[in-house]
Amino acid sequence: MDEHDPCPKKAKVTAPSSPNEESNGVTLQKIRLMEERVVKLEEDSKVLTDEVTSRLSRSSELYLRPVQLGFDCGHRGGFELMKGYAKKIFPKGEWDNVDPIKAKRIHVTSITKDIRVVWWLLVAVEGYPVQDLVTSLPGQPKVGFKQFAGYVDVDVNNGKSLFYYFVESEVDPHNKPLTLWLNGGPGCSSVGGGAFTELGPFYPRGDGRGLRRNKMSWNKASNLLFIESPVGVGWSYSNTTSDYTCGDASTAKDMRTFMLKWFEKFPELKSRELLLTGESYAGHYIPQLADVLLDHNERSTGFKFNIKGVAIGNPLLRLDRDVPATYEFFWSHGMISDEVGLTIMNNCDFDDYVYASPHNVSNPCNDAISQANIIVGEYINNYDVILDVCYPSIVEQELRLRKMATKISVGIDVCMTYERQFYFNLPEVQKALHANRTNLPYRWSMCSGVLNYSDTDGNMNMLPLLKRIVENKIPVWVFSGDQDSVVPLLGSRTLIRELAHDLNMKVTVPYGAWFHKGQVGGWATEYGNILSFITVRGAAHMVPYAQPSRALHLFSSFVHGQRLPNNTRPSIDD
């Protein structure tokens, strides 16, 4: 065959629907691929690097089937590895795109003197869905770990689907736990928040058109799963309008369905240790998710969730305790006057405080609260009172982002919110993430503008659910950035102490400093060897955002079931 003859760019090739199917009179040849063995293809397709061989060795079985091409054209040998590594090897010539890669299919073309054949390698891609593989994000630095993103249908009849983003651990992902992270709101994106602002592997660049590495990403210690929940958040959606009116119970139910179906996509992770984490209103999401997963475990005679820990940052746990802590924080930090602070303390009965305005408190109390909010003003970031604010300018429809505030002395990009918003609305980014598959009639935003979330659910007390979790021998860590005025440490510390008292637990680690890199990382206490309260010095509502190194140290200790070090003293020279 003259290899200079014109060749069609594509040709349809019929692949077997199962490994046992026969085609063209040729029986499928099943081959066990061991680490020391390389599959011998035709002469032009022998080259497989050591790296590819090692990675392919994780696939349990390969199935090879020769198929004659439906056109008279030769193709040089080539191999495209789709096991999540986006690595291409070309023994000779260029890759021939004979047929679009389907889920769990890789194909190699080779040529002999007599016939042209296509070798289909049907592999399990380590149990992961190829169609959700994110080969690379626009402007992304090169990395060695795999990313997946896509949808899980939680209610097919209603057309309800949740969007997820999954990142493998940087090192040894096959032996690391799975950490699920949820942001709060209610109604804010875990992908935009947790994954791309706080603890994921990438941050948006200053121009909003690319990414930079987060050197303190939590995927150094664990595989990470971020979910945009409930529907109406980020790219999660429903074709049924009533689904956008929801609350804690429906959110927890959908999350349980999501997890069951997500593990069908990623069966190798079913038996992994599962860590449930989040922040803010995840103080509701995570305990209620753990509750429904424990219910499942009690009923199921088959698969059970392997829950090994719960960790929640600056969580809303009990409104009537967390709200007064905000105004105590304002007063103790000199943000409101003694007069206003004392008026709130003397006139506000927070025992009956409710989420919805006017909060079921007296008029003098509401007046004092309003005055406090005016004094603090809109020019202070309540989520981090020591952080500067960003004043962006978005130029009409061109969406060009101009940064008028950049980084302050502590190295925090205070405009990251706007960079993230810009990046996620780029069409090429959504395509790379397999997102927005229904072309939603609104732009991606960090917090939902279409969600109608129950106000009354915010009033619920989460301590009984945390009690059940602890009684199931699941460690619970509540951590608080000490510069957060929205859900301050003052309320969380009190609530965890009350929970420990309810559980009849004694102090197993007295309240004291913990250390990181020779400096005080914060303060911590532990009850009953299982329930911990931890502060992170210099952090705020989004702990990993303001103190990434201390946050990673805290998370790594949590993953390994280790207490934070309390015996490392900094060396101070006079």
UniProtKB/TrEMBL annotation:
<comment type="similarity">
    <text>Belongs to the peptidase S10 family.</text>
</comment>
<dbReference type="InterPro" id="IPR018202">
    <property type="entry name" value="Ser_caboxypep_ser_AS"/>
</dbReference>
<comment type="function">
    <text>Probable carboxypeptidase.</text>
</comment>
<keyword id="KW-0121">Carboxypeptidase</keyword>
<keyword id="KW-0378">Hydrolase</keyword>
<dbReference type="GO" id="GO:0005576">
    <property type="term" value="C:extracellular region"/>
</dbReference>
<dbReference type="Pfam" id="PF00450">
    <property type="entry name" value="Peptidase_S10"/>
</dbReference>
<dbReference type="InterPro" id="IPR029058">
    <property type="entry name" value="AB_hydrolase_fold"/>
</dbReference>
<dbReference type="GO" id="GO:0004185">
    <property type="term" value="F:serine-type carboxypeptidase activity"/>
</dbReference>
<keyword id="KW-0732">Signal</keyword>
<feature type="region of interest" description="Disordered">
    <location>
        <begin position="1"/>
        <end position="26"/>
    </location>
</feature>
<dbReference type="InterPro" id="IPR001563">
    <property type="entry name" value="Peptidase_S10"/>
</dbReference>
<keyword id="KW-0645">Protease</keyword>
<dbReference type="GO" id="GO:0006508">
    <property type="term" value="P:proteolysis"/>
</dbReference>
<keyword id="KW-0325">Glycoprotein</keyword>
<feature type="compositionally biased region" description="Polar residues">
    <location>
        <begin position="15"/>
        <end position="26"/>
    </location>
</feature>
<keyword id="KW-1015">Disulfide bond</keyword>
<protein>
    <recommendedName>
        <fullName>Carboxypeptidase</fullName>
        <ecNumber>3.4.16.-</ecNumber>
    </recommendedName>
</protein>
<keyword id="KW-0964">Secreted</keyword>
